[in-house]
Design brief:
The chain is α+β, with helices and mostly antiparallel strands. The chain is built from five helices and nine strands; from the N terminus they run H-H-H-E-E-E-E-E-E-E-H-E-E-H. Helix 1 runs antiparallel to helix 3. The protein is elongated, with a radius of gyration of 28 Å. 16% of the residues are buried.
Length: 220
Amino acid sequence: MSKFLDRWSAPIAGVVMIAVLIWTISCFPPARSIFCSQEDSNCFREWVSALSGWVAAFVALFTLIPLYNQVRLQREQTAFQLGDAPPTFDAVQHTESEQAVLIRITNWNRRGMLIRGIWAEDDKPIEALWYGTSDNTQKNRALDLGFHVPLILEGWVDREHRPVTMRIKIQRASAADVMNSSAWDRCTLAVRYELVGEDRINVLKAPVHLTSGLVIELEE
């Protein structure tokens, strides 16, 4: 039902408004005197003729919107097939440690990806506990999230295998925030990166998805 309303609420509202306007002009004398002169015996026909162009433009507009969405989806599919799809970034609170968050960055692009920085948008400092790639290699050592030396994710060239995914486990750097179980409530993380061959810095953002236990605790 919600999808139907999202798609057709505006056209239905437009039709209802036009119908109400026509009824008001035809059946309500005070309104008729405003919109029609006393000499005009075909007022209704004149108004229908005047509004027909606007109605046609209105209908054409809502016909173009689905076409635009189809073209956009086709472009995304083509970009994915050619290896031009953008990387993805998500962050989920660790199920066994509410103070930690597991970041996952996947490079769907055929070009190599240089990760230049990761930060929390609430400006509270964060630190990395470990990081590793999708081949299960894990490095248990400190990681400078300012990335003076960038992390490199290879491009997804061999489509017979999964794309390279970087996993990074982080926590708050402040001792007070580390002990705070709600430190990640309504927090958004961001990653700065660039693709090899492109002279442009990009930013991806993702909200921290809380574990179910903490969500219940916050709602109470």
